[in-house]
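To start, one record:
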Amino acid sequence: MARSQLAGAARVARWADAALGPGRAGAAEGGGGDGKATLSDASAQRAAIALGLTPDQVRADWDTARLSGLIEVHGDSARPGWRLRAWDRDDSAVLRGWVALFDAWSLACPEPEGHEPAAVAEVVSAMPQVLSFLQLSAGPVPVDQLLDLLRQRVTELRTERCEIPYDPQSPPPAAEPADAAELAPLLDWALRALASVGALTCEDGQATLTPLGSWAVWVKLEQICVAAQSPAGNIEQSAEDMLRGCAQLRPNAARAEYRAWLAARPVGSAVAELLDAARGADALLRGLAFEALRVVGAPAEPDVRAVLDDPVLRPYALLWLAEHEGADAEDAHEVLTREEATWLWVDTAAAVVDHGEPSMLVRHLESAVQPTIPALLEEVRAVGHPRTVQVLVALAAAHPDPALAKAVRRAAFQVHTGGS
């Protein structure tokens, strides 16, 4: 079913790979000049002629291909995503592609006009509960009943926001009950968007999950239940607290927690919260946030690209994008400049200083790109990381070689005093 749902998108993705890839004639018009990864009119017309479709059909399949990770747009060129490369040999890649499309359902159809962004966001946040109800009902559910459920859930979300103590001296304001008349067109939009990605059908005033949609919701419910029953149980925590709770877990257990935490939230807000956590002072959380973003996959790509200009997040974002585009994890570091690699080395060392053992800091020396300790110290001093002094002081205290420890302490003093 997932293959059938994505067949048109895969066909357009293969056409884009052949016609719009780097170095091919017309590649400059493939991604569109507006920076929004849309097809230009000329490219849509070319694809329509080649594939026997209308330009509107091509655009719809193009959007589906992007949302499902079958195609990736970089600047003015398009390239196949790893899921397209694995399309013929890996059923799980096809399923993950459809799940990525399902997670991005709110982007599949234009939002209805005349509604505040906050109202749309409330409906997107409330829809997981509506989908869960559909899954548990195991059959058609009247849309009026779903509207009542949506109204209740939106009211709950507003109440939760009002309970936040902005001013302890004054009582929190009462939440405004959700209006069913205002929510009705938004529910209609949500159901149409979910139907367009193949998650449900809506006929005769009733909505029913498709087998594919039922499976996807069941998987997410299972992830939530497993996390709720696990010792970690981080599902209700903020991104920062969730990442701290996962810091001592083994990689597989941590990824299970990430999946459960993500399943309980709209993907857009989850990605934004993870990136906010990554911007903090704790380098360990920075690394863990990008591990969680690896679990998100393709839907996180636009947000990850958007932080490339942030010097704190840039090395992590470059590695994430390289792996997302198919680079082997062991080779991904090659996308970093020497300065970026050195900055990342210091940032990782800061995480070890705060959360690890001294012996780990000594072993961390082996991962530096510099061939000698003097070269490393020189470039570490030049890179300007805010934790450089603390890292060098801790390294000097941990290293068993007295001569090397002395050199590291001298470098720390020079950074501290601004000397050379």
About this structure: The chain has four domains: 2-90, 117-218, 230-335, 338-417. Strands lie at 71-74, 77-80, 141-142, 200-203, 206-209. Residues 338-417 form one domain.
